Amino acid sequence: MPKFPYSPFLLDPASDPVPPANGQSARAALDLDAAALFVVATLRSWVAPLIRPGEDHPDCRDLFAMAGVGAPGVAAFDALMVIIGSQAIRLIDMRCCTCCGVGEDEEAMLRLVAALQAADRATGIAVLIDWLPEEAVPLALHAAWCFAAAMAEAGLVLRPSGRIIPFPAGRTMH
User: Fold this and answer.
1) Which of 41, 93, 100, 143 could tie 80 with a disulfide, CB 3.0–4.6 Å?
2) What digits encode the pLDDT tens for the residues 46-78?
């Protein structure tokens, strides 16, 4: 499923696993509910061949099938990841499939999907603008919205965290 070329900011195998920058311990992946675990597992299985090429990895399409998320959800997730992978403006914290903790950007992806499922466009944009150049945000937002909708249609609904995500300093959306 992954396509090339990718921004060098998508992957940093040396950072797997990395303690959160804020000094708090990462949330354990096993503590996630089914919807959140689906997002994290799908994210990790999508990037796994890029992080550790040549090794056996789960196929994220199998995860979509097991979760009952149809082809539109697969296409939307792939589009979102291609945009992030090819246009990231900073290092994106992606963990390997066996990592026990949930990374900061995995948590951000959970906030993104939860926000869009709750029709909170502003929080979705705030997450994406931290990862992408402004011109890439509209397409990424559309792909993320379609992915979030496909998940909800399959009964996988995330609870919004209630955490306010400010725009990164010096960045605005017009």
Assistant:
1) 143
2) 988 887 888 888 888 999 999 999 999 999 999
CA distance 96 to 16: 7
| 139 to 82, 134, 153: CA distances (angstroms) | 11, 10, 21
Name, in order, each residue with C-beta under 8 angstroms of 116's C-beta and a sequence gap of 6 or more.
124, 144, 145, 148, 149
Question: Structure pTM?
Answer: 0.79
- DSSP assignment of 98-133: T-SBPPHHHHHHHHHHHHHHTT-HHHHHHHHHHHS-
Cβ-based burial of 106 (10 A; exposed 0-12, middle 13-18, buried ≥19): buried
Strand, helix or coil for residue 28: strand
Written as six digits, the tokens of 140 are 């990424």
Residue 123 has a CB neighbour count (10 Å cut-off) of 19
The predicted pLDDT at position 163 comes to: 46
Residue from 88, 91, 93, 73 nearest 5 by CA: 88
